[in-house]
Each structure stands twice: as structure tokens, then as C-alpha cells.
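Practice problem: predict the structure.
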Amino acid sequence: MNFDVIILKRTTSDTSRIKNQLEKGKVYNVDCTDFTTIFSESNVDIVINTVCSFGRKSESTTDVVNTNLLFSLTLLEAAVKHNVKTFINTDSLLSRNVNSYTLSKSQFVEWLQFFSEKIQVVNLRIEHIYGPGDDVKKFLPWLVDQMLNSDQDVSLTSGIQKRDFIYIYDVIAAYMLVIKKRTTLSSKWSEFHVATNSFVAVKDVILIIASELERRRKLDITSRLKFGTIPYRPNDSMKPSNNNNSLIELGWSPSVSVNEGIIKYVNDLLDSDNKI
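Answer:
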């Protein structure tokens, strides 16, 4: 597949993870250029919406809603106005009532369904992504930092909740497959769960990380892990409700097991220039 790529970012965006790609396509700063200009200058066939605010950087609820709902809705309206064929959205498999992030993402999905009469929509609901280049505010990078750079105990939930940890390269493969197969999908609305359907207790993943760090750095980490010392989030799920059958039928399958992926993830962090 050969595409001309257009990247939309803010002037303040951290582009370190895509710095080698920036010269390969057009780049617009959306806080300086309006959507009408962007879409008028190019014949856009597909929009891939990955904009997201988790609310982990002290953003207000209004900030989270402005990013996940209002900005995304403005992008969607512009895509419809300029006759874009396909809008691929990045969604969460978490319940809508966990926090402001999940609620705002769910509210945008309702607008996607409303607009699917005018544009082909593919909604990708993704489980817990991890891999190289992870945002340092996410759970796994935070956890590794706490294990390596602090002598204090690490307060955790009991860790019995199960999650479907999916490696970033498997997620990318799902996007590429959907792009390739888009003409075979419904012209209105399609939704896929991007998940391995292999559920692992969070505690088990934490212990895999601790074991690998202890092996590499010769530290005593496990004794500092205090499971059960903090409560779960309100409305948190003990096990997600995933069904990746439709994505499997489309031709996708996960290639990285959680044990393999977590160990690779830890070693990539340790061997990189990341400040850990």
C-alpha cells in the first residue's frame, strides 16, 4: 500500500517517536491552520483519528472533553464536508463510566454512529497497548520508573483484575489490515475489538517486569511491591469484555504473546537512551 501521508499535530506536540517520518509527508500544526485549509490543499481519502487525552497530565475535565470529543467532532465534520471516504477512529475497550477519558471517547462514538450515514466509519476499540516509545505517563513506564528509580514501596491494587495486553506492532497490523480491506467493509459502520483475547492478571504482568528488572539490574524489587494497598478506580472492570472474532475473520492475528512482549518491552527500555 502506497499513500501520501498528512500529519496533523500541535506546535507543542512531542514528535520524537515519529521524527524520522516527518519529512516523508505534509505536516500541519492544527493550532495554526484550520481544517478547511488542510483538506482543501489535498484530496484526502482516509482520516485516522488517534487524538487522545487520558487526563494524566493534570488536564481538567474540560480539556479532556475538548480533545477527545470536540476536536474529534470538528475533524469528523471537516472530513464529511470535504468528501473523505473513510474515517478510522481509535477507541477504548474500557467501560464508558470509568473516568472522563472513557466517557468522552464513548460520547464521540455516538457522534460517529450518527455521521456514519455520510461517511464510512471504522471504530477500533483497543485494549491495553504497550511497546517501544510508550508515553511515560502510562502505567507500565510509570511502574518501571518506580521500580528502578525509587527506594520506596510501590503501592498497587491487589492486581487480580485481568487485562488484555497487546503489543504495539500487533495494533499497527490491525490498522494496516483495516485500511487494506476497507472497501470490503460496510459503507457505513464497522467496529473491531483490537485485542488478543488472552487475559492476564495485572499482578502477573507486574511480577514479570520485576523479575526481568531484577535479572538485569541485580536489584531487590519484588519485596517493594505492595499489592492491595490502594483501591480500584470506581466502576473499574475486573475483566474486559472482548470479542476479536470479526478482526480475526478479516485476516488479523496477534503475533506477540504477553510474556514475550513484556520481556522485550523491559529490555528495550533498558537498552535504549530512555532515562530509566
